[in-house]
Design a protein that fits this description.
Length: 246
């Protein structure tokens, strides 16, 4: 987050902006492959919508109105199956958040190939984030409940300066007592090895889709953290270290 200090300080010292500055472009990709049933689909979509409405998340989104966060949401499954759920928009007010929540809650599952191509989801997110060049930071979220089984391999996808965070959704006991859910430990190891990118990247985990809402809240709060410079004003001299101090 230290990389945000300089542009945030420049923003404060510059005063009102003539054009909008975006502090972070955040693309959220949701797994809708064959391992996700209808109930889990709704828990995921509605869990994200509910997370955006949590007071702490709202406050984090609206913390710096001069440099709003921009959000978009898509769902993904097979190599050629990605669908835009909510296009890019700047989050400047509670009204913007509420509108995004309503858009998500109104979504209905479409026909998608059942395979799991995390690599294709990375490519789709990379292309979407390329449309936001003025944002200081570019972050892609990939939520999923399994490893890839369709090309390309996620490790082969070059992401440049995009940070890729993950939200792994797995079973607590390594197999849900004979069910199909993948254990959270091997799934987490897979995401850390092949999906996460960038020095600030991190993984959040959910123990099943019913834990998705709480996990998404934790992840959004961590992603939206910024250095607090709002107390600085242009006529306040910046402190310098004493002689001999680093």
């Amino acid at each position: 987050m230290l990389r945000l200090a300089a542009p945030l300080l420049a923003l404060v010292l510059a005063g009102p902006l003539q054009a909008e500055t975006c502090r972070q472009a955040l693309a959220l990709g949701l797994d809708v492959s064959g391992s996700v049933d209808g109930d889990e689909y709704r828990l995921q979509i509605d869990g994200l919508a509910a997370a955006l409405g949590e007071a702490d998340v709202r406050n984090a989104l609206l913390d710096i109105p001069q440099a709003p966060v921009r959000l978009m949401v898509f769902e993904w499954s097979g190599t050629a199956d990605q669908r835009l759920l909510a296009p890019w928009r700047s989050i400047r007010s509670d009204t913007d958040i509420t509108a995004l929540q309503q858009e998500l809650r109104a979504s209905r599952r479409g026909a998608m190939e059942p395979s799991t191509s995390i690599g294709a989801a990375l490519r789709y997110g990379r292309a979407a984030l390329a449309d936001q060049p003025e944002c200081w930071r570019h972050v892609l979220d990939i939520s999923g409940d399994g490893i890839h089984n369709a090309r390309p391999h996620p490790q082969s996808v070059e992401m440049g300066d995009i940070t890729v965070n993950g939200l792994a959704i797995g079973a607590a006991d390594g197999g849900a007592r004979g069910g199909e859910a993948m254990g959270i430990a091997p799934l987490s190891a897979y995401y850390r090895a092949y999906v996460l990118r960038g020095p600030d990247a991190f993984l959040e985990t959910a123990l099943g889709f019913r834990d998705y809402h709480a996990a998404m809240v934790r992840k959004l709060l961590r992603e939206l953290q910024v250095i607090a410079v709002s107390t600085l004003v242009p006529d306040t001299p910046l402190p310098f270290p004493e002689d001999g101090q680093p």
